[in-house]
Every structure is written in C-alpha cells, then in structure tokens.
Amino acid sequence: MRATAIAHPNIALVKYWGKVDLTRNLPAVGSISITLDTLATTTRVDFDSGADSDQLFLDGDRASAERTSRVRVCLDLFRRFRPDLPAAVVESENSFPTAAGLASSASGFAALVTAVNAALESPLGADRLVEIARRCSGSSPRSLCGGFVELALVGDSTTVRSILDRRDWPLDVVIAVTSKAAKTVGSTDGMELTRTTSPFYHAWVTRSPGDLEAARTAIAAGDFEALAAVAEASCLAMHAAAMAARPGLVYWNGATVEGLHRVRELRGGGTPVFFTIDAGPQLKAVCEPGATDRVAAALAEIPGVVEVIRCGLGDGAMVVEA
Ligand code: 2P0
After folding, report:
1. Residues 83-111: pLDDT tens digits?
2. Containing domain of residue 55, as a range?
3. Rg (alpha carbons) of the chain, rounded to whole number
4. Rounded Cα gap, residues 238 and 236, in angstroms
5. 43 falls within a domain
6. Atom of ligand 1 nearest to the CA of 11
7. What's the 269 CA to ligand 1 centre distance in angstroms?
8. Distance between Cα 186 and ligand 1 center (Å)
9. What's the rounded Cα separation, in Å, for the pair 53 and 90?
10. Taking residues 166-190, what's their average pLDDT?
11. For the chain, how long is the longest CA-to-CA vector?
12. Residue 12 pLDDT more than 70?
C-alpha cells in the first residue's frame, strides 16, 4: 500500500476568503482558479513501513509537529472509511518556497489525498476525495483539476470541476517573489479574523456570486479584458476586507504594491496582463503568452523582487507511481 502523486498549486482569480463552518472547513464563497505548471508538490505515501505513528518528511527533513498533525488529520479522514489503515510515512517535496503565498497547502493536500487514494485497494469516489481535501485546505480541491477550475458551494458541501481546458486558453502566469519568508498570519487565522472583525466582511461575501458569474462568462468567451477586471476587483476586495479587520491584515510589502502599479501601467499601454495577490506578498501577473517576456522583464526590475517564476497552465493532480 504505497503510491506517489504530483499536484500543482493553483491561483484563484475569484477568491475564497471566509468560512461558514470551521469544523468542516466549509467556505463562505465559491472560487475560480487556474492550475499552474512548473511548480509542483510530489508526495509519496507508504502504509507498509511499520511506523508506529503517522510521520511527515518535508523536503527531506522531519516536518514540524504542526504540519505533521495536519497530515494526520487528513489521514484520519480516510480512516473513517478505512479504519484498518496503518500508520503512514509521508514524504513530500515542493519545488518552491513553502507557506509564502504560493499555495503550497493546495498542491500539498491535493497530492496527498491523490496518493493516499491510489494506495488504497478500494479507493474512495471523487466526491469523498473533494470533501477530504477541502477539510484539510479550502483551496486544495481546486488543484485536483487542471486548467480553469471552479469550486462551487452546493448545499452544505462543495464540488470542483474544470470549466475550461488549459489548451483552450493557454494563459501564462509570472510570479514576482518579493519575500521567501513564511507569512506571519496563515490563511485560516486571517479568514477568521476578517469574518469576526471586519466591517466589510458581509459586503465581501455578498459580492462573490456576481464576481463568479462575471468570471465564468469571461472565461467561456476568452475575454481577457473582462477577466482582468473581475480578477483584480475580487483580489482587491478580499484584501480590503482583510485590511479592515482588527488588527488589520496587510499581506503586501512595498514591492507587491510597486508590482501592482507596474502591471496596470503595462495594461494601460496595451499589454494583456492583470495581477492577483493571495495571503502573502507575492504578486502574480496573468498574461497572454505573447506578453510573458515583457511582463517578466518589467517585474524583475522592481527593487525587492527577489525572483521571477514563469508558469503556464497545468493539469490536475495525478498518480505517478502506484
Ligand atoms: C484563494 N486563499 O482563493 C484564497 C485567496 C488565500 C487567498 O484559499 O483556511 O490555505 O486551509 O482553507 O487552503 C488559502 O487557502 O485556506 C486561500 P484554508 P488555504 O486561493
């Protein structure tokens, strides 16, 4: 009972921020994302090691107690259906900095649930897998699918599906890394602080269905300008709600803000590019492939940008060895 799976991070164009049920990690809003290529998490799960308790190794080193316990929670969700599952040794490798706003928990849990499911002799169905992934990390079900992906709320559950194949609109993403440090306030804490203290939280939740509809329409039509408008609006509204929390959450640094202005200048000059920013200081610029060199060069010039990573759109999580 062992298997290896690979998954890529995803970047939300219409953001998820806030939960209606913390225990089940049920999001307050749906979200639409793109799955990346280039960056990847590779996870190997071994239930045959004879280990006494679940163990996690991250990039070759024994992981912290906190990270190990999150993986244990995930494995225990499988044990509800398979109580006989022995302790596992999980080895996970990221090709990018962990926990710095590059969606490592999304690719991490998507790879983990895919690997565990492949290791089981009678695997769980897709609905159960989505539920388990979502409980571990609200953004991770989106990394189960490739291309353009929607995570939708259905009653008190969620579904995830690819709404457009990556080959049908092959956008690029240029990530301007402005810090490699782990963020100080994690997404779950940031979302709860926003929900409980921000005067803009209700407005944020209320506007989400309109943003989702606008993004769906823009994606179906391949309308870059329309997608740029809704993606930047969703990103700024999420951060506005978080900044209005008490104490206010500011995930950006100076280079993030410079990057945002640079992207808008480029678009004003006719370059098809827009930005999005998650719960960290990295700026992600989404562009048409013909503009990627220009966008990467412009972002690399910004003081404080320590690395520029280019990605295309990628596939969903997959088993690479079972
Ligand atoms: C998103 N983020 O839609 C938003 C935008 C970050 C900013 O989904 O609390 O780390 O574990 O469910 O999975 C962060 O995702 O959050 C996130 P939890 P997770 O991408």
Report:
1. 999 999 999 999 976 655 676 799 999 99
2. 2-166
3. 19
4. 5
5. yes
6. 20
7. 32
8. 9
9. 11
10. 92
11. 61
12. yes
